[in-house]
Protein: GTPase SAR1 family protein
Amino acid sequence: MTSSLAGPLSAAVARLVQTLRPQVGPATAAGFDEVLRRLSAPLQVAVAGRIKSGKSTLVNALIGRRVAPVGVGECTRLVTRFQYGAVDRIEVVGVDGSRRVLPFDADGTIPADLDVDVETVSHLEAYLTNEVLRELTVIDTPGLGSLDSASVARTEKLLDQVSRDAVAGAEAVLYVFTQTVRADDQETLRAFTAATAGRDAGPVNAIAVLNKVDTIPPESVAGSDGEVWRAAAILAGKQAAALRPRVAGVLPMIGLLAESAESGAFTSADADALRALAELDEASWQTMLMSADLFTTWECAVPSATRSRLLAKLDLYGIDRAVRAIHAEPGITAGALRRALLDASGLDGVRAKLDGVFRARADGIKAAAALASVTALAAGDPGERQRVHDAIEQLLGRPEAHQLRLLEALTLITTNAVSMPEDLAEEVLRVGGSGSIPEQLGLVGRPPHELVAYALERAGWWRSFASFGATPAQSRVAHVVHRAYFLIWQQLRGASGG
Ligand SMILES: Nc1nc2c(ncn2[C@@H]2O[C@H](COP(=O)(O)OP(=O)(O)O)[C@@H](O)[C@H]2O)c(=O)[nH]1
Ligand SMILES: [Mg+2]
Structure:
């Protein structure tokens, strides 16, 4: 168990909770203990989205090991928490709080089925010796059901609740969705809102992944020139416009390729089989690529079972990419081929976003989540509520807690609790939505003196907006934004020695 606070904000909130603890009743105090425990644990990221959108596949890709069961089976219907542990171990946690060790399958995955009544199981805990998990705890959820399967509606309602609870308990959300033929932007937005219900998801703590972009026919996307990744970028851009400001970005991805490349599933035998396929004449090859059925049944020297195996690991797009890589470089090694598949998967982009949004800001995200929990825990008792309120106001008044205020302002804007003219809302999102000053100012790549001047100008503007043309709610946000610009200005001046 690694336990350390993510940074100064989490430390300040931990002190606040410890100070308040003796002043609240036993039930609230127990809740506070849980808040303290979570504050010192890694950031909790829930992977949410519909069933079969590729959540478990993505979890495996991120962890770099095929450990989460993919497809069907009881365990794909349970919440699994993947966290760092010195020894690899799976525990089945019962609804009664009992814990039982579950052996891994021979191939190192969590067994798809349990030999106990699933109704008695709360969730699974998977402890893995894995560097990624030192900083992130990843929560795989069963997911929301598809809209059109009435026959399984009951199960799906239960699953929805299970997934919602897991999401509600998390501090950040990775929302996985796919582009289905009928899905329009509104439907995606509804599904996302449902997935994140009960939790303030916003650009600070939510990232969306447009998965399975290999299954999108590029010719169905105007402007794609028949290119899968160009089509993916266009669609992801549209979804980002529809989903904002609720997510920090929409990243296109082929989870299956990422999983196969990162988990060791892609072997040198697979590379050999692809080399044999690369020998086929162009006409046969184009025919085989027309469908999964044709790919496995077409007359060819590579055994049909081998082709099915490749299909399961790479699907048609990945197979095509690999064969093209072999044509381009006939001597390519299995390792280089694996790397090419990884590059074609989009995983690097997802990782970079995770680092930039979640890991870099874990301190603020965790501190804000803890304050929200503490507020909720004390809500039932007027005395406790007042004490917690006063303590939080005092904390937020301190200069070092300014980032928390900014996150709070951001949440007020993204949840429409405070409405702002669109250009101003955009500006608040920009200032609060990044940890890098040039990005906050919207002046990436500009010279320092421009940044300094702009920060000062905007600080002044927001101060007068706070005093003059604003409603009381807008005014509160405006004060926070003014202060953010002022602190940026100070920092820039300090850096330039002026
Ligand atoms: N073609 C393709 N298939 C994928 C991709 N990602 C996942 N899959 C497949 O989709 C199915 C469902 O994936 P799974 O991770 O179990 O979905 P979950 O229910 O959201 O956890 C599996 O057969 C995966 O191999 C992808 O990017 N492309
Ligand atoms: Mg799953």
In short: The two ends are 46 Å apart (CA to CA). The chain has four domains: 9-41+361-417, 42-253, 258-343, 423-498. The beta strands are 43-49, 80-84, 89-94, 99-102, 121-128, 136-140, 172-178, 206-211, 250-252. The pocket of guanosine-5'-diphosphate (ligand 1) is lined by residues 51-57, 70-71, 76, 143, 211-212, 214-215, 254-256, 315 (CB under 6 Å).
